[in-house]
Amino acid sequence: xxxxxxxxxxxxxxxxxxxxxxxxxxxxxxxxxxxxxxxxxxxxxxxxxxxxxxxxxxxxxxxxxxxxxxxxxxxxxxxxxxxxxxxxxxxxxxxxxxxxxxxxxxxxxxxxxxxxxxxxxxxxxxxxxxxxxxxxxxxxxxxxxxxxxxxxxxxxxxxxxxxxxxxxxxxxxxxxxxxxxxxxxxxxxxxxxxxxxxxxxxxxxxxxxxxxxxxxxxxxxxxxxxxxxxxxxxxxxxxxxxxxxxxxxxxxxxxxxxxxxxxxxxxxxxxxxxxxxxxxxxxxxxxxxxxxxxxxxxxxxxxxxxxxxxxxxxxxxxxxxxxxxxxxxxxxxxxxxxxxxxxxxxxxxxxxxxxxxxxxxxxxxxxxxxxxxxxxxxxxxxxxxxxxxxxxxxxxxxx
Length: 399
Prior knowledge:
Blueprint: H1 5-19, H2 39-44, H3 54-64, E1 74-85, E2 89-100, E3 111-120, E4 125-134, E5 140-155, H4 160-164, E6 170-187, E7 191-205, E8 219-232, E9 243-253, E10 263-277, E11 280-293, E12 321-334, E13 337-349, E14 361-373, E15 376-385, E16 388-395
Antiparallel strand pairs: 1-2, 2-3, 3-4, 4-5, 5-6, 6-7, 7-8, 8-9, 9-10, 10-11, 11-12, 12-13, 13-14, 14-15, 15-16
């Protein structure tokens, strides 16, 4: 989903070369028709601009996407193209994003909304909407995310041992429909507090090895409610350079509202950002999630939840508990280009006494960043893990 600077430069040069017009005069000193420019117009500086073809218009569009448009009431951008990942193979993805303010004042950050669709040669397709609506003076925020997908995937079973066992690798297809919303009120000292609601439907079909589900239901509806508490001092949530975030999300899926699997989930996140120099940012994340009661297999925490732990096949490692820590250096290099390097470790487990050196799963790698809009990056990451690697594409930073 990126258009590299070198490709853009090459296309620009070829278009400029093909549209160059050299005025040639006939015997009377009048320019030839191929230039369509009169001597008088040339002297007056009124040279007609050559008409741009579709490739030229695309180049013009991407060359201007990072221009500051904060004065616009609604700033809309479109991006799309091919990409690749281990779980989806080659795919085509498209994204329409918008930035806006509910009120134009210095106390109200910009809200955002994204509508996306993607599909691949494997039969994968996914479409959805996500965003953050910020009320005037940042008194309240609504965070929402919803999607529907048909996803041919691989499954190794539940727990570290099953995930590490290469012989367990098997195919299945996931049907999923999910929606979450958080309603957060701002309190003094950058504290946010409010309820959340959650709906999730998952169904595993075309299972190559059904025994890996160990008798668990393969079609599950889950209805949840919860509470969110956070302290957020970040300068920009999607691409912070300073500040910190501490968050707790407690969710409940009780039986009395129709859940066949009654369970609860707790998720804790701590993130820290510091600008080391004018073009370099240090980012760190400590994350943990736990499910207890009778959670369905599709709602169990996974190692790659949240995109920070890169280098593993999506959903390969899952269990009742997950924990990880990742440190990343983000460096602007030249114009709209940047790189990141990261390192960290994570694991999954059902009981704390199962954590050991041999169950730790490292993550490290390097990534490329292209500034699509101001403080909005297209990212391409190459991650390495324990006997594993993966390439991932996305919008905004991993955390």
